[in-house]
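User: Sequence in, structure out. Go.
Assistant: Echoing your sequence, followed by the structure tokens.
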Amino acid sequence: MLKKLDWYTIKTYFGPFIFIFSVLFFIFMVQFAWQEMEKFAGKGLDMITIFKLLFYMGLSVVQLVMPLTVLLAAIMTFGGFGERYELAAMKSTGVSLGRIMLPLFILVCLLSYGLYVFSDTVVPQSQRKARNMLINIARTKPAVNFEPGVFVMGIPGFSMKIGDKSGENGQFVEQVFIHKDVSAFENQQTIVAKNGIFEPADDQRFLRLSLFDGAVLEDEIRNKNTEELRRQPFREITFDTMVQYIDVSSIVEKAIEDEQITDHYKFMTSTELRGRIDTLRKNDSLTYHRIFSEKYQTLLSEYFLMDTLAKNSEENITLPPLSSIEENKKASLCNSAVSEIDQHKNSYQINKTEIQNRNKNMARHVLVLVRNFSNALMCIAFFLIGAPLGAIIRKGGVGMPVVVAIIIFILFYLVYMYSENLAKNGILDPYWAAWLPVVVFFPMGIFFTYKAMTDSELFNIESYLKPFQKLFAIFGNKKTEHARYR
């Protein structure tokens, strides 16, 4: 049964919590929008579509905003209690700090569970909707990907530039220039057209570009010497209508399925992620077994070869001395040895890259899965840090509490990102990396809670200097007495 004191504590906490969450969510969203806005602004999209897309993409910031809000609101609430001597009045009636924190602790536990549910359901759905919006924009609004007077380099196989565009969705283009992306020793091809129109293709991964009144310019360069290139005639093929297909899947994201992307790890719930991780483990195990078998067979064949040579040497069958081999054969043998070494190096590098990519893919799945839990638990850890710190600091408002909360959150963010990079680089197990912030900050919260409940002078510098002062006093007294009786 909640008492009036509990209701008063919750009411006092909820005011700063709502205000801080609103401010932080706005700041994080503005910062996110500032980074992403340049991809969409001025490209033929209305502001409602842009804000809707940014909102879907930015909902994931709640996973970081919620723990910081809990921390800052706890420091401000209990700092205000201490500054107004309300905390001392509560304690004077026999109510301990732990009892004062209990209703808010239960509330934060409920908020943590809500954050887990939000991360496990709302965030994947919002990411899926944002990605589907990007797919639809790429297919129906080509102005997002093609700007007048600017070469678009992200199209596989060629580079493209348009002079102008028109139409509601930017589908009508003029002065089209398309150049095939090949090396300097390959045949060159350039397409120019006065105008064209973008249309959706039957295959949703492509965008159809119909060109009108243009020409194809070609230069045959492959296997041509300088003289042949100089005498090569100018080749131009004019056309009335020509159709080009542009792969837009690489511009937005690869692999779409009926405009519904369902196989990305960011779009999965915890249950789906567990199933995907089990599948990845089995596939990785088969791949590692295949790589091991191939290398083992290679080493085994080399071992038997060396064993055969050793037996031949025991039977006095010796190889001819190096001096008796002709010079051209020596060079051939050296080149063969170098070629074999390069093949081994390339083979090992390919296997290394494949293993690293698989480890990174596994780490991404594990981090998303486990951090749905760890981010929720960080709310509890930050409350156990913030409430005792507020009671010890005894400063409310937005001054000292904000400074302390920012310092703690910066430390948390450094641990958060550092552990993630270690996991993706295969240095740290992804499960440990996901739980590392909780492992670091939960004991810190228990320590601060214990110090606050025992009325420890945690931030009083004199309390830490007292042992040294006593030590200096002891040695100082002995020196004085020695001088007196000498």
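User: And one key feature?
Assistant: The longest strand covers residues 206-219.
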